[in-house]
Specification:
9 helices; globular; three-stranded mixed beta sheet; 23% helix; alpha/beta
Length: 371
């Protein structure tokens, strides 16, 4: 019976367009974000608490307006080059529909403009043949997955499972009115209460039957509990403790590079406090990021300096990295990987880099336990 079940799983993965169990199996199909219609996110405490200093001040002044051309154009050139690179590597690239995010929308108790669909990694989580739409905490991202519905319906019609987590109310009860960013040496605190489950998919990474997560300012304990209960006994969900003072998304904190290999941010992770299950893996400590001298990039980036870790594995050997991050490229090469350079610094103004900007839909492999 077990052999029959395994054979059925392999057959299903061969016919269903959605099949991704980890971050490193050979990549075959991916969704890449889009910048058309991008709008500076509307002001809200849960937004500004996660944006670095200068960018947070600038964002609060121009929230709800379109991103200017001087920010869009270089990022679009880099995005086009990234897509061309993926296609040259034999990867099928899918794109969301363009959306005008200046249009206002709302729900009982609040209204907002939108943001953009630059980072599909946040709003959808792929577990095997299932795509889960996540209950995000930023009001400006409430309907973001609608731009992917054309693709989602196609995947569903071809056999994929399609789930949406409960839509959050996003009322004031979800946000701590007394929240402030912790000073150095103070314990980490979070702006989210446990009023309802919320989470971003980018706070999770997948290693087959084991899923790892960091609690953050967009993912609360109820959100983690919802996913654990939804996935059931076939998966184990482990929480990783982060020391980031304004935590948001795991892929600049810790990321697997293959079976038994972890890339770790030494500023945010205490290796001694990793879940016991990870302590048998080899650990590559991420090098100090190369400084970015451009004042414009410093002011416009929505991300911190550790975006150097936001890389994309094509398979267990090849990895896409921005060539500006020379120390990261050298460290990966010394670890036996093959870095593929691709310029992408200007995309940080829209929320991320290679890992954020993508959602791997199909990787050639089957569900396994790596522990």
């Amino acid at each position: 019976m077990r052999m029959d079940a395994a054979a059925n799983a392999v057959a299903a993965s061969a016919t269903c367009p959605v099949n991704s169990h980890n971050e490193w199996d050979p990549l075959e199909e991916i969704i890449v974000g889009r910048l058309e219609g991008a709008t500076i996110p509307s002001s809200h405490p849960v937004v500004t608490c996660n944006i670095p200093g200068l960018a947070a001040r600038a964002q609060s002044l121009v929230a709800g307006f379109r991103y200017p051309a001087f920010m869009i154009e270089p990022a679009q050139r880099e995005l086009d080059g990234f897509i061309a690179l993926l296609q040259s590597l034999g990867v099928t690239v899918r794109r969301p529909d363009p959306v005008d995010y200046r249009r206002k929308f709302g729900a009982p108790g609040w209204t907002s403009h939108g943001f953009c669909n630059s980072c599909p990694r946040d709003s959808m989580l792929v577990i095997g043949d299932e795509i889960i739409e996540t209950p995000m905490a930023w009001p400006c991202r409430y309907f973001e997955t609608h731009s992917y519905r054309t693709i989602l319906k196609e995947y569903f019609q071809k056999g994929a499972r399609w789930t949406s987590a409960p839509k959050p109310q996003l009322t004031d009860e979800l946000f701590d009115p007394d929240f402030r960013l912790p000073e150095k040496g103070e314990p980490i605190s979070y702006i989210l209460t446990e009023f309802e489950p919320v989470f971003d998919a980018a706070d999770f990474f997948r290693c087959g039957r084991d899923i790892f997560v960091t609690r953050s300012n967009v993912t609360n304990l109820m959100g983690i509990a919802w996913l654990r209960r939804h996935l059931g006994e076939g998966y184990r969900v482990h929480e990783i403790e982060s020391r980031c003072p304004n935590p948001m998304h795991i892929d600049t904190t810790i990321l697997p590079l293959g079976p038994g290999k972890l890339l770790v941010n030494p500023e945010y992770i205490d290796v001694a406090r990793l879940p016991p299950i990870l302590k048998t893996w080899d650990i590559l400590i991420a090098p100090e990021p190369d400084p970015i001298d451009s004042r414009l990039l410093k002011v416009t980036s929505m991300c911190g300096k550790w975006l150097s870790m936001n890389i994309l594995m094509i398979d267990e050997t090849r990895v896409i990295v921005d060539p500006h991050h020379k120390r990261m490229m050298a460290a990966l090469k010394a670890w036996g990987l093959e870095p593929i350079p691709c310029e992408f610094l200007h995309y940080a103004a829209f929320g991320g880099a290679f890992h954020c900007a993508t959602l791997d839909i199909r990787r050639r492999g089957t569900l396994q336990s790596y522990f």
